[in-house]
């Protein structure tokens, strides 16, 4: 779409003119009591269920007075886009969320703000553009074929297997490394840290690491730090001429060229974020996709037929991906039902923002619960049904902003092209080799939000090899 400025992020505010409420007025919301801390308690117990109830009772802009903060929950697609795209200059990430994440991610692109963020995003973006992402498809297909050769008929721990596979894929892209031996300990450490992070968001500050109660956390952080440090050390000891062309090599070139802007700690931080954000979200999505396929045999067969017609048994190439629209739609529908990041990292306004007729002061916290919007029957009829057809080219489209598993605006997911290529390749190759079914008597897995959305119990499915 052409815009006045020519910049895709700076389209004029799309919302129709609405009457302005006076400054100082807030959108409706639940009664906060004296401090509003009970609202916080309700959210910490069941974030999405609680936000759903407040949306039903108060509408698409809900004000939460949680002393000393004012928070606004946005579930209207147009207003969510207006906030994240049009008002992005007046937003930073919510400090408490960043304090929790920075224990692992340091000052990486996920954490940084302002000029440091722009500099990092600008340097990293070319590595994650569609073309370099497509160039990784042969390596992804190789690793997937190797991993799938170990899968067996019968009950199979698909979640664990897919987590190990996505770790290997991202380790290959980031440091050309083989991390099979480290995968189980890294997955366990990340799981424990994510469970802890989920409650830490609701604490006022991080506890000092030296406290005896933080011993387990120190151990988990050391597992992940050690993994990244080993790859960086090994690379730095290898002769430059032997360096493979991967993300780590490109970051070390930046470090050599400008050690002040790219100290080794910054190289470490980007490796950590790519490794963690790159495998955990993909593993969660592929796990839910495997469940959706198992629970919807007709959709599974249709996707397999498409894969069979296009690939005739060979491994997918980058060119095949666009020729697998139904398979892609099964992944999109999975992300609609089970977005890996069900609530976007909350934002804090640094200047007054007018949204939906409300004049909201600087320092307001904004929360965008993507999962609620993607389960809204106004945009997705029968929202709990798995219907990849919703994403067909000729289907009636939901309004922009109603489906945004990768976020939107300048801070949209850096890895979206890479991960769509990766997930399509993995999904196609799984369908070529196995039929997926629920285990006898199995109930639908319960989603739990531990930073990403995962099944409450590790997902195990019934596999039947296809000859
Ligand atoms: C299905 C997989 C994935 C999903 C659903 C997902 C989703 C997201 C979301 C919702 C955000 C935050 C947007 C916001 O706060 O507005 C994000 C940011 C980010 N993602 Fe992903 N992501 C996925 C895979 C990946 C992969 C594979 C990588 C890297 C290899 C990656 C790297 C990042 C980074 C670096 C950011 C921060 C960008 C910034 O702040 O500028 N993600 N992702």
UniProtKB/TrEMBL annotation:
Lineage summary: Bacteria, Pseudomonadati, Pseudomonadota, Betaproteobacteria, Burkholderiales
Protein name from the UniProt record: Cytochrome P450
PROSITE patterns the record matches: CYTOCHROME_P450 (PS00086)
Keywords: Heme, Iron, Metal-binding, Monooxygenase, Oxidoreductase
Family: Belongs to the cytochrome P450 family.
Cross-referenced InterPro entries: Cyt_P450 (IPR001128), Cyt_P450_CS (IPR017972), Cyt_P450_E_grp-I (IPR002401), Cyt_P450_sf (IPR036396), Cytochrome_P450_Monoox (IPR050196)
Chain residue ranges for the region called Disordered: 1-25
Gene3D superfamilies hit by this protein: Cytochrome P450 (1.10.630.10)
Pfam families: p450
CC cofactor: heme
Positions contributing to heme binding: 413
Gene Ontology MF term list: heme binding; iron ion binding; monooxygenase activity; oxidoreductase activity, acting on paired donors, with incorporation or reduction of molecular oxygen
SUPFAM superfamilies for the chain: Cytochrome P450 (SSF48264)
């Amino acid at each position: 779409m052409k815009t006045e400025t020519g910049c895709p992020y700076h389209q004029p505010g799309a919302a129709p003119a609405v009457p302005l409420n006076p400054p100082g007025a807030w959108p409706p919301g639940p009664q906060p009591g004296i401090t509003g801390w009970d609202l916080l308690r309700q959210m910490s117990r069941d974030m999405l269920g609680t936000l759903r109830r407040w949306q039903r009772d108060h509408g698409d802009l809900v004000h939460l007075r949680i002393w000393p903060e004012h928070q606004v929950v946005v579930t209207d697609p147009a207003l969510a886009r207006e906030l994240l795209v049009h008002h992005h200059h007046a937003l930073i990430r919510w400090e408490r969320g960043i304090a929790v994440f920075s224990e692992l991610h340091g000052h990486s692109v996920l954490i940084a703000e302002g000029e440091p963020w722009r500099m990092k995003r600008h340097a990293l973006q070319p590595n994650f553009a569609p073309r370099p992402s497509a160039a990784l498809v042969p390596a992804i297909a190789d690793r997937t074929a190797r991993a799938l050769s170990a899968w067996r008929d019968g009950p199979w721990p698909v979640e664990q297997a897919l987590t190990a596979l996505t770790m290997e894929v991202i380790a290959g892209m980031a440091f050309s490394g083989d991390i099979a031996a480290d995968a189980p300990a890294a997955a366990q450490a990340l799981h424990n840290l994510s469970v802890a992070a989920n409650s830490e968001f609701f604490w006022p500050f991080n506890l000092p690491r030296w406290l005896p109660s933080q011993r387990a956390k120190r151990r988990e952080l050391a597992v992940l730090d050690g993994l990244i440090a080993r790859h960086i050390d090994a690379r730095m000891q290898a002769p430059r001429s032997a360096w493979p062309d991967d993300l780590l090599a490109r970051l070390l070139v930046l470090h050599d060229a400008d050690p002040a802007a790219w100290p080794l700690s910054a190289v470490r931080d980007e490796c950590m974020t790519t490794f963690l954000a790159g495998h955990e979200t993909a593993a969660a999505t592929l796990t839910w996709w495997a469940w959706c396929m198992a629970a919807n045999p007709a959709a599974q067969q249709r996707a397999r037929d498409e894969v069979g017609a296009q690939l005739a048994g060979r491994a997918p190439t980058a060119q095949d991906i666009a020729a697998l629209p139904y398979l892609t739609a099964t992944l999109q529908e999975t992300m609609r039902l089970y977005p890996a990041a069900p609530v976007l990292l909350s934002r804090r306004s640094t200047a007054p923002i007018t949204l939906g007729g409300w004049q909201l002061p600087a320092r307001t916290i904004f929360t965008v619960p993507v999962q609620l919007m993607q389960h809204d029957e106004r945009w997705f009829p029968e929202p709990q049904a798995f219907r990849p057809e919703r994403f067909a080219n000729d289907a009636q489209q939901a309004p922009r902003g109603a489906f945004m598993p990768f976020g939107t605006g300048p801070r949209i997911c850096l890895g979206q092209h890479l991960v769509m290529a990766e997930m399509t390749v993995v999904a196609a190759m799984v369908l070529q080799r196995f039929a997926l079914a629920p285990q006898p008597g199995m109930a639908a897995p319960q989603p739990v939000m531990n930073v990403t959305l995962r099944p409450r119990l590790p997902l195990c499915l019934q596999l039947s090899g296809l000859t």
